[in-house]
Design a protein that fits this description.
6 copies of one chain form a homohexamer. The first copy, chain A, is of the alpha+beta class. Helices cover 32% and strands 29% of the residues of chain A. In chain A, α2 crosses α4. The radius of gyration of chain A is 18 Å and the shape is globular. At the A-B interface, α2, β9 and α6 of A face α2, β9 and α6 of B. β9 of chain E pairs antiparallel with β9 of chain F, so a sheet runs across the interface.
């Protein structure tokens, strides 16, 4: 079965990561996964939120879509005076995923905020935000080390995310928007470089799915994340 | 290994469901899972949101914590002028889960809103909201049938949710708050009565986890959901 | 003239107070006045707002209706991004009433917030919030004494509230919703255990009313409050 | 006992009403009660809110303080993104009071909004808003009659408001701010020209008060309202 | 060509400034330019915002229209939960203009907020806010000097604002609302008493305009501001 | 005198316009003026706001900074629940400027919204938004013509914007951020291709400025806009 864009069922879309896309952020990149484009920017601030223990750091994320990232223009959050619930859900996922990549004691008493702004959305924006956000985060940490602010890279290992789904009863890796719209099942999986799961969110959008189907989808994601982390490693070199 | 409250590792907390806890809602119940208490109320309105196809129905959910549901008082959302991002995440999960239980064509052009208000929170409020919300939803549908508004029960089958986690390297079913706070891994699983997955959210809070560990946790949830649905069936009888 | 529910014109609805309905609050109760059910929770915090003199305490209240407390579902305040003006009016009344019950110097530099959340509304929710809120407040104070945080009960005396109105030219005590909707005149009266007035709000909804009519209504409320305070005394014992 | 400004205990402050203070409103006045100055403007709109029966009209009020109406500058509501709860309480009172003055069938299917903006506040702003708001409302109605939009004046009679209180154990009429700050008891009373009560709000701010004390305060307000309505009649002539 | 109100093309509307219109503000005036009426109030607070250097002061402005200042009633900002973008634009202009009048070192570590509330709007409200706001500001500064809080008047010179425009191809000074609605070009100009420009905002509303036309409009504004500052000087005397 | 980046006093920064930077918008470009980068996207919607006459169109603009566009991260508008007043001011300017470029009758009953999102800010973001926004707008119009939706290009001519200022008593064209921070005078000028002014905003930030100085700055802007429109013409070809 051929996919819309000619990919095989277990094939990622082409990925392009342009580091330092904006120059003021301590770390940044533009990540492109097919037609999905997310600008990720990591900002370091020398303070921590109240719930964080003294001496340790914090990592958080914010996610937003530009109004015309999609096929139809959407209103800005500020015009509606509320964060879109979908954005709220996604930025919590991205934040948890990136926190898992960081040793908070090595980071020390500072906060890194990773802003993920979707310039163009064609499916998979939440996982692209994790994959690209990790690059921005690692670049910011590297800058802290190079400046001598912290002694050692606080990154524990690579972290990336990818989706898989069941479309027309066929499991597929890395759904684009047109596939995602028709998917019966949609699963997002964030993994580390040991192939372990950091976050997994599966949704039976069109129908419930079996434990076996889930196993297949997680395997697809394992393959996809391995490939994404290879690209991350090429971009960043050794951590 | 004994748990805090003496349960075995694969044992649910005691569950109590009081139907018709409030009398104006078309369907309602108070669900108690251990010390977690959620008031679930299903309201029927004869209109559908713009994105829903003519002739079909819609199910949505709202989730909120009363200010003193927890160990510390929290500010009301309205005082902060925003829905808590955590609540936004949860109510999207509950909404998707309950929609999976309903045949929207049988429901017809009407919306059922299921309000899940946590009176007391001791872990597992989101899954209790699904399990109790299903009861409220089914009671409201039954009322529509009994009134003759719709011809046939639009409920496809039972839907419930439960959590499992890894605490001190021990997988456990249905974490209470004290366990949840110490869990390395936390997984919430919504299932139908065929044991299929509707929603699955796993989070490596303290560490990443393996695909094998995930399998174990899903199995625990399968057992838990089977037991919860037995209780739902006792409460509701045949759908 | 018989009332809708068979009561006499000067008779209260049946009152039931379940203390410690939720376990984390320092004091709590579920108060049921007929079909009106309000969950009252008192939370102690070791800080005072800026306008309160050093060394003295503060008591405040918040009031809200759950979305399906009434015949029709109402939107949550947070969805409208504003506190309902009616709730604002009521919670100011409840706060002033409960403050009148407390010796702020004995309470010392801490704030007690009494949350009154209406689970089911059938008329008289604001006065039920005062009557039940007083119980929650007193239980929280008792806990502070028992813990040794404060030396002496800071409660000056019992405080309760009840409504009276004129329906079909007949004065009546403790209106339920159906009566309230048809009332020409509606009066809410908060009193202490000396029969003195703490708050009195009379509204000529259908027509203006005479000073004599008002006297009659206040007398009815005096009787009602005396009976309510008898119930409060049974629940709490000596203050 | 002499009052701060030399008045007798049962004497109103001097009242000045300048009609048509702003020219675009269908009716307007600046009312000055001592140093309290409220600009009242009545606007007619040819539509009614959803809850109003077809063929009948509606009257509503909004109340606000300019930021420097008082001794200290206060933030604007919009800067805090919420209507002050005090303003919410007051504008509900003003709206109910003015609605009592109008025959909604004679008014016909239109809404009159009375904006009461306090330019300078020195106590008694809510009752001045009622007294001045009535003038603006009546002028707007007169304009509707003069234009031929409605056949007959829809005003049922004069409506005014005044406060009374107990300061240093002395009942007093029409408290200014300095008196109000020291009042043990504060009562606001809105009356029609038959001396009947439309709204009555009594608050035991410093202590509870007896039914006898309340009677005295209502009598004071009766006297005050009679005098205020005499001034209204001079301003408006026959209704 | 005669103007609507009989003025010549280069003639100001009549200007009336009533100082101390409200008594609590450190400085205040009601400024009337034709039918435009703005209440300006300057409030002194002994604190500065974070971005202001220690030892120096700050001046800021807020601008708002009362709901019925205009031909049609407009909703209050707080009802829409946002500052009107037009008000935001104007209050930034007024703030910058008034800051230009003040020596921040002489003012010392305090903030003066100038509230400009439009009671009645008939064109030119933003420039009237500057002209009247300057009076309120200067009066507040004078009070600070008279009280001995600061040693020397921190006002550098007179500041006023006026508009000019092109209506029916005719340049005109000080447009009223009816002229402004038909203007092709509209220019607002804030000047000091050396005839220098502090703020200039020109807008080609109906068509673009030439550099020569702009010169003509600025000359008109120079004349207008000279006359306005003569009035300011009469009101204030020597600064 | 040499400028920070080696430019001459009357020289623009290098300008780069990448059209169709995002693919779903009817027209889009990324405009880079030195280090300032703005993503401009024009969206066509087949409806008009209520105040627009039937049969004619409307053009509006929104402006926002990404959180890390600048040297320091700023909070998102939605986190503060309000549009930044600076953004409100700018988007009104951009909207007015772009409307001046369009024949609303040729556009017909539709709205074009031009979103200007600053990815990186280094001074001159509001004028870059106009210059780039014009490109996005023209591309969207061209698409409407090519699709046959409208018969004829509704663009009247080129529109661009540039700033000039006085730094160290030296007039300069197209200030970058470091220059802008030290500018005594700052002037933004939007012009059409006849060299006529559409919008002109001059601010004496550090000191007032003379009418002669203003003439010099407008001449600088005339030169700059001529060069910018040459670039626009190269990008778009004949309109």
């Amino acid at each position: 079965m051929e996919r819309l864009d000619g990919r095989r069922w277990n094939e990622l879309r082409s990925v392009k990561i342009t580091t330092d896309f904006i120059k003021f952020a301590e770390g940044s990149c533009l990540i492109e996964c097919g037609d999905t484009k997310v600008l990720c920017a990591a900002s370091v601030e020398e303070r921590i939120p109240p719930h964080v223990p003294f001496g340790t750091g914090w990592v958080t994320a914010e996610y937003s879509m530009l109004p015309r990232a999609n096929r139809e223009r959407s209103k800005r959050d500020v015009a509606k005076l509320k964060l879109s619930p979908r954005s709220a859900e996604i930025q919590r996922l991205v934040g948890r995923s990136l926190r898992a990549a960081v040793d908070m004691e090595l980071l020390g008493e500072r906060t890194i905020t990773v802003d993920c702004d979707v310039l163009q959305g064609d499916g998979g924006t939440r996982t692209a935000s994790v994959t690209g956000g990790f690059i921005a985060l690692a670049l910011a940490c590297r800058k802290l080390v190079e400046e001598g602010t912290i002694a050692k890279m606080p990154i524990r290992g690579f972290v990336s995310g990818v989706s898989a789904g069941i479309v027309d009863e066929q499991p597929m890796l890395d759904l684009c928007y047109a596939e995602d719209s028709n998917a019966m099942v949609d699963l997002n999986c964030i993994m580390n470089d040991l192939g372990e799961i950091i976050e997994l969110q599966g949704t039976g959008e069109g129908r419930a799915y079996t434990v076996d189907e889930q196993r297949t989808l997680v395997e697809l994601c394992t393959k996809g994340n391995r490939e994404l982390q290879k690209i991350q490693r090429e971009v960043l070199g050794v951590l």
